[in-house]
Amino acid sequence: MLATSDTIDPRFGLARRVTLAGPLRLDGGVLLSPVDIAYETYGTLNAEASNAVLVCHALTGDQHVASAHPRTGKPGWWTRMVGPGRPIDPDRHFVVCANVLGSCMGSSGPATVNPATGQPWGMSFPVITIRDMVRAQAMLLDHLGIGVLAAVVGGSMGGMQALSWPATFPDRVRATVVIASTARHTAQNIAFHEVGRQAVMADPNWRGGDYYEGDPPSAGLAVARMAAHITYLSEAGLTEKFGRRLQAREAKSFGFDADFQVESYLRHQGLAFTDRFDANSYLYITRAMDYFDLAEEHGGLLAGAFRATKSRFCLVSFDTDWLYPTAESRSIVQALNAAGAPVSFVELSSPYGHDAFLLEAPELNRVVDGFLRAGA
């Protein structure tokens, strides 16, 4: 360890940033050193270091899982799941959530300084994978004195990390919760991400990723967020919330303003996103998600990823999630069965599509709480 800094959350938990000497060997062969990791902890690690729960965040998430975001002031992104009286409870668990490698909330990524040049990495930052993110998290846990996790929990891209944990470190996880996720991206998933990446790179302000001393490519990043956000919702949810309702105006005029409410909603989502996220990080992380193929990492057989682990597994899908539909979770369950791993699976009903795991979902809370308590 080189340096660390702490900021006390007035309610509970610690927000921290640590610089680890490394090196971290990436899947691409690069040795990254040093490695910055921003993270938050909630609760107290017990004497046996046996109550640690790692929460893995999704593509546009961060380490502020249960405390206010320092830039937006909004509550943590998963306060419905993490907090006193919640399934992941700091009164029982030592909760760790780390900003993933390549992101822009304090961990090493394109926006951080390359020690060799004294300038932001930009597009010279090495290509990363989901497994690289997991290895960085393992370095953090080593620093915290945590050998074995009581559980790793994640949804969407966080679920990819959760799946990768027992496959990469089979002796370090006792329970794995994977929500609304997949073991690899389909061609459709990759296609949507490529539309977003091209929108960013087509923005004149992108300048090959070298924009940190000027205006960022906000317009391109906003379009990328709009396109991606559609995949997080469901047709039924959009219809119920917006239908074909027009914006309220004194006199209707045809044109290219936001005539429909759904247009205004998407534009707001895009613009708000540019205030808190880095465009280059978006390129790197979406590429890491597209590269993710857990079966390919283990000889082309998904069951091979789980043969060595002793972890229990819980998988949850949602019936209106067309980004990672239930069939993806069933494929993982079949592989776990083939590997002889204990697994429970449930498909929940929700009108909210992929984003259901982030919204009020009492059934999801009951499933996760029951699974974690059973292990304890």
From TrEMBL:
Looking at the record, the residues that make up the AB hydrolase-1 domain are: 51-360
Active-site residues from the entry: 156 (nucleophile), 321, 354
Q: Which GO terms describe its biological process?
A: homoserine metabolic process; methionine biosynthetic process
Entry GO MF terms: homoserine O-acetyltransferase activity
Pathway assignment reads:
Amino-acid biosynthesis; L-methionine biosynthesis via de novo pathway; O-acetyl-L-homoserine from L-homoserine: step 1/1
Q: Which residues bind substrate?
A: 225, 355
Specify the domain of life of the species encoding this protein: Bacteria
Q: Where in the cell is it found?
A: Cytoplasm
Question: What Pfam families does UniProt report for this protein, alphabetically?
Answer: Abhydrolase_1
Primary localisation category: cytoplasm
Q: Which GO terms describe its cellular component?
A: cytoplasm
**What enzyme category does the UniProt record give?**
transferase
Q: What is its EC number?
A: 2.3.1.31
- What catalytic activity is recorded? L-homoserine + acetyl-CoA = O-acetyl-L-homoserine + CoA
Query: Which family, according to UniProt?
Result: Belongs to the AB hydrolase superfamily. MetX family.
Assembly and partners?
A: Homodimer.
Role summary: Transfers an acetyl group from acetyl-CoA to L-homoserine, forming acetyl-L-homoserine.
Question: What is the protein named?
Answer: Homoserine O-acetyltransferase
What organism does the record attribute this protein to? Sphingomonas ginsenosidivorax
